[in-house]
Design a protein that fits this description.
CATH class of the largest domain: Alpha Beta
Radius of gyration: 18 Å
Distance between the termini: 42 Å
Number of domains: 2
Helix content: 10-25%
Largest sheet: 11 strands, mixed
Strand content: 25-35%
């Protein structure tokens, strides 16, 4: 099943065409996509009875974030060995976790203002939680995932790494719009192999990242299990699962995003997230 926010209304797709869930269910389910994760099991049973499946073509301007108001956003650094290598850092024994503050989360149609000159890209597979999750085993991890979407962990490297002893990962990655997600959520059963998904990021037509989730250090179910060993994950929460090598900061010479550029993020089984970069107020 594919789930989308179309013109700010929760929608599924039947025979490729969008169906407004609130109207089709006679008010049984909410119009706001952010609220459906609280009734996820009941909703998915209803959606299956309607024949919900894959979408046809939609204009990006009509689409919003698949989970626009998560209570918590977890982000994992150094979750691919090649990314750790390009950053000259050791492989962690436990996921290295920071947060992107929820106010940075946007959908696929909103341009992103470049807040500072050292703004970088990081393509990531993003998990959306579908059930209250605490102290779950790795074998049960996928059972708590509502679905997957595409995300860009856009990062201001200057602020992120400010101060050798006290870096500011969370602040450096949470400027307005620095968490684009979309274009929709895809439930795990739609993937041929949910543990082997390809991701590709291009900028101005150049491939800058190309990797597969089989190379994750901590897999999706492992992340769900380990995070839930400490905190309770809530319906609608996001997990940015980490990025691979190819980011601008690690290149020689270093490269950063510029106004007018478009990041094209593609993930097998999900589709394409296009993120247009524009000048910020200080650059205008």
């Amino acid at each position: 099943m594919y789930l989308a926010s179309i013109e700010n209304r929760l929608s599924v797709f039947v025979h490729g065409h969008p169906v407004d869930v609130n109207r089709a269910s006679d008010g049984r389910f909410p119009a706001d996509i952010a609220e459906v994760y609280e009734v996820w099991d009941e909703f998915t049973k209803w959606a299956a009875s309607q024949g919900a499946g894959a979408p046809g073509q939609l204009a990006p301007a009509s689409l919003g974030a698949p989970s626009p108001r998560p209570s918590q956003v977890f982000a994992i650094s150094l979750n691919y060995r090649d990314h750790a290598a390009e950053a000259s850092l050791q492989i962690p024994d436990f996921p290295s976790v920071f947060t992107k503050f929820p106010s940075c989360i946007i959908g696929p149609s909103t341009p992103v203002e470049i807040a500072r000159p050292m703004t970088d890209w990081e393509l990531e597979l993003v998990v959306v939680i579908g059930r209250p999750t605490h102290l779950v085993s790795e074998s049960a991890g996928w059972d708590h995932v509502a679905g997957l979407t595409i995300g860009q962990d856009i990062s201001d490297r200057e602020l992120q790494l400010a101060g050798a002893s006290y870096p500011q990962f969370s602040l450096g990655k949470s400027f307005p719009g620095y968490g684009p997600t979309g274009p929709w959520l895809v439930t795990p059963d739609e993937f041929e192999d949910r543990d082997d998904i390809g991701l590709t990021c291009t900028i101005d037509g150049e491939i800058v990242q190309d990797f597969r989730t089989t190379n994750l250090i901590f897999s999706v179910p492992r992340l769900v299990s380990l995070l839930s060993s400490v905190v309770e994950l809530r319906p609608g929460d996001l997990i940015f699962t980490g990025t691979s090598s190819g980011v601008g900061f690690a290149r020689t010479p270093r490269r950063f995003l510029k106004p007018g550029q478009e990041i094209v993020s593609e993930v097998e089984g999900i589709g394409t997230l296009r993120t247009r970069m524009v000048a910020g107020a200080s650059q205008g």
